[in-house]
Amino acid sequence: MGAKILLIEDEEKLARFVELELNYEGYQVTKAFDGRQGLELVETGDFDLVLLDIMLPELSGMEVLRRIRRRSSIPVIMLTARDSVEDKVAGLDLGADDYLTKPFAIEELLARIRTALRKKSILAEPSVLSASRVRLDVARRIVTVDDVPVELTKREFDLLHCLLKNKGIVMSRDALMDHVWDYDFCGESNTVDVYIRFLRSKIDEAFNIKLIHTVRGVGYVIKDE
Fold it and tell me: Alpha carbon of 97 to those of 25, 65, 74, 77, 225: distances in Å?
């Protein structure tokens, strides 16, 4: 299922249009038509991102944002017809992640949403991933075994990163192709198998570790020794 988005917007036609477009892109959308209802949903629900209009009945968007930031770092994109620099600065100072002025192209909104969700995902990820004697430093893109550096290509690093992020979970070849090669994999190919052999040669065999396990007919999984 896609990310869960809360849309707080009092213009019902616009809210419905945005909801339909986001649903089409695979997002799950919940709507609120005033600030108080929207704030209650933020406090009781489990959302990945908030789209927040500034001009709202009951509670203004600025006040909703202020109260959200007292207890949550959820990404918030402000939507408003007001294009003044002061409003933008005020929203950003209160903790908004982005700001979009109406009318906007839906493609731009989708791009802003993807960027905000990507930042959230990066911030939520541990800076160092490990399994057995292997450590992967995400930010520095360094892999070590027993503190000895291992030279990996970009694709090898990305594949190991994906497997370590999902340690203990069997990853199918299709899933690995989708995450590491950035496109949907259809049909037969030994690309994943080839890169798994590269990793095993540089880590498992070189350091006598049983790190990457094959699940026959399914895919691969990393387990601690």
Answer: 21, 11, 9, 6, 41
Q: In sequence order, what are the beta bridge partners of 135? A: 130, 144
Q: Share the mean pLDDT of the chain.
A: 87
Which residues, listed in sequence order, are joined to residue 214 by a DSSP beta bridge?
A: 220
| DSSP-derived secondary structure for 91-153 | HHHTT-SEEEESS--HHHHHHHHHHHHHHHHHHHS-SEEEETTEEEETTTTEEEETTEEE---
180-200: average pLDDT: 75
Q: Indicate whether 187 pLDDT > 50.
A: no
pLDDT digits (tens, 9 = 90+) for 10-36: 999 999 999 999 999 899 999 999 999
The neighbouring-strand residues paired with 80 are 101
- Give the tokens for residue 134: 């292997």
Nearest to 95 by CA among 122, 71, 123, 124: 71
- Which residues, other chains included, contact 69 with Cβ-Cβ below 8 Å and sequence gap of 6+? 94, 95
Alpha-carbon span 83 to 96, nearest angstrom: 15
Question: pLDDT at residue 84 above 70?
Answer: no
Separation of alpha carbons 165 and 68, rounded Å: 29
Residue 180: per-residue pLDDT: 83
The tokens for 2 are: 């896609």
